[in-house]
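Show me any protein, keeping tokens residue-aligned.
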Amino acid sequence: KNDTFKIIFLDESKGEAQAAAHVAIKANDFTHIKVFLQGWTSRKKDEDLRSMVTHEMVHALQGLVMGGAAYKKQPAWVREALAVHVAQQGPSKLGWALKRNGGKIEPILDGFSEGDDRAKLPEDYAEGWLGLKYLESTLGAAGYRKFLAMVIEQKVPVQQAVAKSTQKSFKEFETAAHEFSRKSYEKLLKE
């Protein structure tokens, strides 16, 4: 196993990028990690760039720890939610999703996908982040770290890790996470 790797930052502002930022991950090769950040060389706010780089580096590190094939099997909502959480983008992703939905939380809470799909909308990022916030609040810091270790280091499928950590079926977790999200949103509105 190669213990060194290069991180290459590329600005795709003039080309066709799939998203504002993404990481190129090959199934078995992490010697060269390419982080594509659309327009990053012209960003005015350092915090935006820092947040974007942090988000993409979380993806790169998850892939490095798990291996590319296992990383790509992980549900998109978990991959994106963890990157959003670590980059401290949750409140802004939620705000953006709420704005797109007229301030309503219900359209955001449409269900966690278990497939290897890509989180495409602000709603997907917000819902995933809220799901991880629910796990963090329910399991506590130590339990949350154990959950992440199961998923990332031990490569336990997310549904199994959720069931083992929460003692709930995935459907029960989803229902509880959505209720937690509604209550958090209502509390936020009252403040």
